[in-house]
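COURSE: Structural Biology Practicum
ASSIGNMENT: Worksheet 4, Part C
STUDENT ID: 0417
INSTRUCTIONS: Below are two proteins. For each, the amino acid sequence is given first, followed by its structure token string. Answer the questions at the end about the second protein only.

PROTEIN I
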Amino acid sequence: MESFGQKVIRFHQQLVYTGKKLPEGIRIMNPFRESLKAPAILEAFAAKFLHTGDQRHILLGINPGRFGGGITGIPFTDPKRLKEVCGIPYDGPMAHEPSSVFIYDMIAAYGGPIDFYNRFYINSPCPLGFVQEKDNGKEVNYNYYDSAALTAAARPFMISSLRNLIALGIFTDTAICLGTGKNVKFLQGLNDEFGFFQKIIALEHPRYIMQYKSREKHYYIDKYLTALQSM
């Protein structure tokens, strides 16, 4: 029997952007095509945490960021959490992503990564990231909803990606959306049209919590745990 992790590996191996032409100055970020590290990291992660054939409930973010999934290939998992919490070797720069800090604090409160990933899987309606090149030559994270042109261009790719994610073995009774603003508005709109899930629970995005509500982090961790325990 094929494990959930083997399906996840194949999903990412075949992952290419199939949407419309991106707006000028925006490019796709695909660690599985740009890095030799990400495929090996995913294989190790899948073998350790996704090795059963059981179905999972899904938590959906926005799209990968440059310092987390954009490096490791594992959603909301920066190199530091990958090495220190997940126990997977990493010999590159120790990038830091605030969202990853919250997610792994929440996972620790749940019972640890083995217990968490046995029941849940994290990805995004747009499983590839976007970056924008600024006038100074530096690149910054860009969300699929940051411009109407990008949202329209990426929409067909996101619809296809959600179907493919569900086909991995995702429960469709309830999904969690990370983001209570533009992300859930867009995702709920797709869900109303295509019926991916019976219900979507929206929770505050980890980046928002760490940037604006860090003193109340434990309140939001409890809120996440309550939602997970209801599934």
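PROTEIN II
(use this one for the questions)
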Amino acid sequence: MSGLRILVPVKRVIDYAVKPRVNRAQTAVETASVKHSMNPFDELSIEEAVRLRERKLPVEEIVAFTAGPPKAQDILRTAMAMGADKGIHVQLDEKDASQQLEPLGVAKLLKKVVQEQKSNLVILGKQSIDDDAGQTGQMLAGLLDWPQATQASKVDIEGDVVTVTREVDGGVETLKTKLPMVITTDLRLNEPRYASLPNIMKAKKKPLEKKTLRDYEEKFGARLKTIKVTEPPPRKGGVKVEDVDGMISKLKELGAL
């Protein structure tokens, strides 16, 4: 079996425990002074890459990658504290509209990074909890012309053969293919570890490479423009009925029957 060179893209998002609020200009979600953390699905990806090494598979290198503002390097340090060998940070200017990346732009950028790092396995979250697009992994596989397995709940590697188990509407589906490939992770895959204090200190000494979009000769800019962002309308209260006949009568009144 050839050595595994694993690329794990991670994203800095508003912490899952924080309720997002629309900003005053109604142009986006308010991010100033809001707690951010690593996208939960990306934590699963880092954990799985580290577990592959712990299973004594020939993992040559685990590279954590992110594209985001300067503060995004914090999640790279977290990824390295969990077990990644190095980090790559493409710094973006949040105020520059030309640097607002959509899933296709991220996939194009990741293709460049895969080629640069000579990666043969990409493990990334099935979606990020900020836009919930769930498109980047599939687009990257298409651009690379690699096989893909999405929403993985179990990953086994033997030689160059990768077996991925995933949950589908009808039950469980098992896919088998060969490296190189793209895998997107689902919540049932594993339980991410907490980074210990000694590993956090070690992560500070691991290499963190900083780049910009100019270092990659391609256009990654957004194709869509957000016109307006608003809160969903408040949910109306329910109505109590005395019996089944009252319920049927109410449903007819509302046009549901």
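ANSWER KEY EXCERPT:
Q1: Residues 4-253 form a domain with the Rossmann fold fold (CATH 3.40.50.620).
Q2: The radius of gyration is 21 Å.
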